[in-house]
Amino acid sequence: MDREKTMQLRRNVKPYEQSDRRASIVQILNTFPPFFLLWGIALAAYSVSPWISAGVAVIAAGFLVRIFIIFHDCTHGSFFKKKKANDMLGTITGIMTLFPYEKWKREHSIHHATSGNLDKRGTGDIWVMTVQEFNEATPMQRLGYRLYRNPVVMFGFGPLYLLLVSGRFNRKDAKQKERLNTWFINAAVVVIYAAMILLVGWLPFLIIQGTILFVAGCLGIWLFYVQHQFEDSYFEDESEWNYVKAAVDGSSYYQLPRLLQWVTGNIGYHHVHHLAPRVPNYKLEQAHESVPPLQKATTITLRTSLESLRFKLFDEANKRFITFKEWRAAYAASIATSVSHRRRKTRIEH
Hints:
mainly alpha; 3% strand; 65% helix; 17 helices; globular
């Protein structure tokens, strides 16, 4: 994509970057009250059956995903026009989702600035190793990577790690504002959770809130994972990396059924979001439909998105993700070729 086309694409998306206060308020009203209502229903259902209570909590988890999308927009300064309003709502939703607002805002901005850049991986993104890196890795590094990419670990233990460990501490280079915000959110969570446990009992609270957070966490990791981990995703060295190509070619359009699109706050239009992070979630679809070049982004569906679980390593030579099975075959072939060359060289020398 040449410079003129790149600039034109950015200009075409620009009109959608303005937040709409009415649309933002409507989204708050159709997200927050239903979440609290479902929490109350889950609590009432607990006296009938903990299983029914957990079932209602699963539905409430969908609304927590929507709350996270609002949190996400606030970190980009796109949900409201005023920074103070975004920061205030972002901190509130950070308490509800257990994500520290200022910390997540900084790390996520780094993710946007480096997505698809092979030389600047490691902050706010999924761990990706190239074939060469995996070939050169130690047995322990390979084991660690295999465990990390295992669906049971990623979607089973991943939410627990993000919510209970990663989100509770700041990086060493965090500034005071970020540290204070994390400490405030941690303290608020402790106070609110303690009060709720005293009010409703520890077991009902654990079943309801635990189910909500775990299910929402799994969905969040899945959405983040699947929209960058498809076969022909974009990854380049720093010298070749391009922001617009990383956005449009390295982020997918996740075509979801209407209900799931609503629950996930249109984040399926991830290519639009990466191209223009200031576009609020309720305008992503409109931008996609109005700008034809954006419709050329890789489209995945619920069925085809499951294939992404197979992709483990990025093959720099062929510019695509491959499976561990493909890696084993290629690695065995390279070893065989290397042995053959050594033997031929030995025969020639003798």
